[in-house]
Specification:
By secondary structure, the protein is mainly beta. The chain is built from one helix and 30 strands. The longest helix has 30 residues. It is globular. The protein starts with a strand and ends with a helix.
Length: about 375
């Protein structure tokens, strides 16, 4: 999901034609909604979108069109009509961002191993590209442009791990030259899903079963703290948000998880199938897919900062265990603090709870009336 210049949103994903077995190849899908979530138009059921796979990243261009990452890098006009496609052989793309000089930066993974970072112009032509990694595999999942106009990539590495995948953070200069890289490891596999830079630090999130771990690094790659949050069902993180109160929100498959600036859990907003979220003012907008349905569908929803969703399980702190590795490449401003910390969903299940409360009160009133009548008869 990306916010659009007119206050609405563009949602991107994929659609699968339910045809003969073996013919279900995902096609890219682009949907435009207004500020209230009402659909304006959709694209994806035409030849230009065939066999492009799932869109994993989208930004709006300065001309009102969109740039999307799927199998290819795709540029559309403001109505979603495809303008051009670019393919980069042997690369699985994961992220696209708009750079400070009005170009694009792409991140992905090389098929035979390694992070891949590229700068492309407004037509998608390569200006430069770099790869990073060792003799085994690396998987890049996220990309940000840093405050010094360099880049930071997050994901996981097997080259610099000891029998398990390790979270891996790579920092480069503006030309893609590696400045430093950092691993984070425990005794199990560690994935770096989602990356965020604040004015003085980097954040990475990772799932471990029904546990979510959030790791904060300083601007030099040294770990500042890491926190573990237990008993969170389906805690696969999708991305991270720097919130207006100086904290963070982890966008997970199970919903939205709010963390303060020190890593303390504040609240959880449960909503299965969440893929992306944005903060709009003091509220949040979430988008995702309906889980467990066939054929499936998508949804978009907003929150209202009125009441807190409490999470009773105390968080625990994971012991700090990090190590630096060296590898050679082969080739936000401060936020205001005026946000209350009490969001609640304006979803249908909230309305259902209100109806339940009303029904319970009605039953109690009926019982009271019957008791009063019985007493009078006596």
């Amino acid at each position: 999901m990306t916010a659009t210049a007119d206050g609405g949103y563009a949602l991107a994903g994929y659609v699968v034609e339910l045809g003969a077995p073996g013919q279900r190849i995902p096609d890219a899908w682009l949907l435009r909604v207004d500020a209230s979530g009402n659909m304006m138009w959709e694209q994806g059921l035409n030849e230009d979108y065939l066999n492009l796979g799932q869109v994993s990243s989208i930004v709006q261009d300065s001309d009102g069109g969109y740039v999307m990452v799927c199998v290819n890098l795709v540029k559309t006009d403001s109505l979603g009509n495809v303008v051009w496609k670019q393919n980069y052989p042997d690369i699985s793309l994961s992220s696209v961002i708009k750079t400070s000089d009005n170009a694009y930066a792409l991140a992905g993974s090389v098929h035979d191993g390694g992070f891949w970072l590229a700068k492309v112009n407004s037509n998608g032509s390569l200006q430069w590209n770099q790869t990073y990694g060792g003799s085994n595999d690396e998987i890049c999942s996220s990309l940000v442009q840093t405050v010094d106009d360099g880049y930071s990539l997050g994901g996981e590495t097997y080259s610099y791990a000891s029998g398990a995948w390790n979270m891996w953070l790579v920092k480069t200069d503006s030309a893609g030259k590696m400045l430093w890289n950092q691993t984070y490891s425990t005794q199990k596999d560690n994935q770096g899903n989602g990356i965020l830079q604040t004015n003085d630090s980097f954040m990475l999130a990772e799932p471990t079963g029904n546990t979510l771990r959030l790791v904060k690094f300083n601007s030099s790659g040294k770990m500042v703290w890491n926190q573990t949050y237990n008993q969170i069902d389906n805690a696969l993180p999708r991305s991270l948000i720097a919130t207006t109160d100086g904290g963070y929100a982890v966008v997970a498959n199970s919903g939205l998880i709010k963390i303060d600036g020190s890593g303390n859990l504040q609240w959880i907003l449960p909503y299965d199938g969440t893929y992306a979220a944005l903060q709009k003012g003091i509220d949040y907008v979430l988008v995702g897919s309906v889980p467990g349905t066939s054929p499936g569908g998508g949804w978009i929803a907003s929150t209202s900062a009125t009441s807190v969703t409490n999470y009773p399980t105390p968080l625990t702190t994971q012991s700090t265990n990090s190590s630096s590795v060296s590898s050679s490449p082969t080739s936000l401003p401060s936020q205001p603090t005026n946000s209350p910390s009490n969001p609640s969903l304006q979803f249908d299940f909230v309305k259902s709870n209100y109806l339940l409360v009303i029904a319970v009160i009605a039953v109690i009133l009926v019982i009271v009336v019957l008791v009063v009548k019985t007493q009078k008869r006596k």
